[in-house]
UniProtKB/TrEMBL annotation:
It comes from Cellulomonas terrae. PROSITE patterns: PROKAR_LIPOPROTEIN. This is Peptide ABC transporter substrate-binding protein. Residues 97-509 form the Solute-binding protein family domain. The keyword Transferase does not apply. Keywords: Signal. Residues 1-21 form the signal peptide. PANTHER family: MONOACYL PHOSPHATIDYLINOSITOL TETRAMANNOSIDE-BINDING PROTEIN LPQW-RELATED, PERIPLASMIC BINDING COMPONENT OF ABC TRANSPORTER.
Length: 612
């Protein structure tokens, strides 16, 4: 399971009461239907808050909800979640099974209908490439960045092997997976609790190899890629890693059509930077998840009330904006809409930097770890969590409560036990006198904190103002970090230049080892230099724990360590509002995890007004 680095975006406070504008209607005739049974005149427009910027959702750079919701429509895989979050195998793409417990071995077999949109069969080489990229086995150099998030050691990266990814699960597969015909078998060095979701399909291996190795023929290129991995050929792995890591990062329509090859129901056919992306049904897709709409256009608008206005005007047909009380009031006042509200899978939190030379880094105090921890503890005691909840969230959801777990959603089976054990509610209750006393003990009564957050997000702006005012009472001067590129990129690339980050994590899976990527030393989503050998060891135990009681105990111990280290603080679970025009789209079923409103696109229904 992966957790995304970006979650819901901008919110604008407004009190507008809107009315639904009239929508044109019309139906498609039989001669408007293609050979796959799709009405080629049907289309749908969906509003989303952040633009797509990478087709490599498994890379550290591309691992974001903004990308993964689009990739959900573009690519197939071995598994997906149903509406009840049960894991289901997509047998039209392939099957997988555990063939051995000792050692743990998982065999993946590709179906005949698994194909890339250029006609090339999907196969074991594609999964082998993902293992090579995510296992970390071949990396012999790491990226270094300047204050603007630009890589400063590109020559070293080009000369070495650098896959921009890391997976604790794939790190357990130390032996090169074995290929046998249409199957590939992964052998783990020890049991792994979440083996069923440990790896997913991503990029076409043949195109990565063609671009990296200069081989024109797809089959020959694929064979060369497999050989490079099996033989650990650094000379070939170096350009393969570079292609995998960088070539699929694009924020507008790429000139090379090879970058648009997909394995799923849709292909990208139009892409205007920061405006919209249009997906058209693939005429080569043979899987079970056949699209209902011939075209899906996702229009980008970070303003929640702007999304409501667009829905009113008929410019979009489905929205899931960052919710505020005003957004909910506005959509509920529009006649003819379907509206649903409820908690989402994203949670708000603040994380602190441990190794950037800033106020929370022991190096700043001559290596005095205890002094740095007191400063961290003091700052977290100034985060006005209750005030944020009361002012910004309860007007939308009066039943909302503080989230006090780093790993569990309130109401989940393990939440109460873990919260009782970790002590976060007590340790980080807003306590200005306690924060002031801690700073006095540390001998640093005045501290400047550079806070990273999305500057276009009104809710986050409001949170920042509340945090700044509260922290000032204890001697902290909280300043907004000046975003150099976009805040999500800076989150991982500009870590030396901010001291704390305010944002949301959104889950794409229910795997219990999910949080490993956030808190393990050097893990994919650990952007802060946090390192605790006890936590690392507990995650090692969690990976092999198959009983819920054992998982609960281990997670409770991990969270207790995070609280004791003053890693950061959780605030609230995101409330959500979804609204759509039933004349254009029906059978919308939103998941609490990604892909949220895009879930089950093959089960949507097209209304009478769905034709262009």
């Amino acid at each position: 399971m992966r957790i995304t680095r970006k979650a819901a975006f901008a919110a604008v406070a407004a009190t507008s009461v809107l009315a639904l504008a009239a929508c044109s209607s019309g139906g498609g005739s039989d001669d408007e239907t293609d050979d796959a049974g799709i009405n080629t005149e049907t289309s749908i427009n969906i509003a989303w808050n952040q633009p797509f910027y990478s087709a490599n959702g498994n890379s550290t750079t591309g691992n974001a909800t903004a990308n993964n919701v689009i990739l959900y429509l573009l690519n197939s895989g071995f598994w997906y979640y149903d509406a009840d979050l049960n894991l289901v195998q997509d047998e039209s793409f392939g099957t997988y099974e555990k063939v051995s417990d000792d050692p743990l071995q998982i065999k993946y077999t590709f179906a005949d209908t698994a194909k890339w949109s250029d006609g090339t069969p999907a196969g074991p080489a594609d999964l082998l490439l993902e293992w090579a990229a995510q296992s970390g086995k071949f990396n012999n150099v790491e990226a270094e960045y300047d204050e603007e998030g630009n890589i400063t050691n590109q020559d070293a990266l080009d000369a070495g092997v650098y896959f921009d990814a890391a997976s604790p699960a794939m790190a357990l597969v130390e032996e090169t997976p074995e290929i046998d015909g249409d199957s590939i078998t992964l052998t783990y060095t020890k049991p792994f609790a979440d083996w069923s979701t440990a790896i997913s399909m991503n990029l076409p291996a043949h195109i990565v190899a063609q671009r990296a190795l200069g081989i024109e023929d797809a089959e020959e290129a694929t064979d060369a890629l497999v050989a490079a991995i099996q033989d650990e050929n650094v000379e070939d792995l170096s350009p393969i890693a570079k292609s995998w890591s960088t070539d699929w990062n694009f924020a507008s329509m790429p000139s090379d059509e090879d970058l648009l090859v997909t394995s799923g129901a849709y292909e990208i056919t139009e892409f205007e930077q920061d405006q919209f992306i249009t997906l058209t049904a693939s005429d080569t897709y043979e899987g079970d998840h056949k699209p209902v709409f011939n075209k899906v256009t996702v229009r980008y608008n970070g303003d929640p009330m702007g999304q409501v206005q667009a829905l009113q005007n008929g410019e979009v047909d489905l929205i899931n904006p960052q919710a505020t009380a005003d957004v909910k009031t506005a959509v509920e006042a529009i006649e003819g809409l379907e509206v649903e509200s409820g908690p989402e899978g994203t949670y708000e939190h603040v994380d602190l930097q441990f190794a950037n030379g800033g106020p929370f880094d022991p190096a700043t105090y001559g290596g005095d770890a205890e002094k740095a921890k007191k400063v961290r503890q003091a700052f977290l005691k100034t985060i006005p969590r209750e005030q944020i909840l009361e002012n910004l969230i309860k007007p939308l959801d009066p039943t909302a409560e503080l989230r006090n777990s780093y790993t569990q959603v309130a109401g989940s089976p393990m939440y109460d036990t873990i919260v009782e054990a970790n002590g976060q509610a007590e340790a980080f209750a807003t306590d200005i006198p306690g924060a002031t006393a801690l700073l006095a003990e540390a001998g640093v009564p005045a501290v400047t904190v550079r806070l990273l957050f999305d500057p276009e997000n009104t809710r986050r702006q409001n949170e920042y103002e509340l945090i700044k005012a509260s922290a000032a009472q204890a001697g902290f001067d909280v300043q907004p970090y000046q975003v150099q590129t976009d805040w999500g990129t800076d989150l991982s690339n500009a870590t030396s230049f901010y001291d704390a980050a305010l944002f949301g994590w959104q889950s794409t899976s229910t795997a219990v080892t999910d949080s490993d990527a956030n808190y393990r030393t050097g893990a994919t989503n650990n952007f802060y230099g946090y390192s605790n050998s006890t936590v690392d060891g507990l995650f090692d135990e969690l990976q092999v724990a198959t009983e819920q009681s054992d998982q609960e105990e281990l997670l409770a111990q991990i969270e207790t360590e995070l609280v004791n280290d003053a890693f950061g603080v959780t605030i609230f679970q995101f409330p959500g509002v979804t609204a759509w025009n039933p004349e254009k789209i029906g059978n919308v079923s939103k998941l609490t995890i990604a892909p949220t409103i895009f879930y089950g696109f093959w089960e949507w229904t097209a209304g009478e007004a769905a034709a262009e």
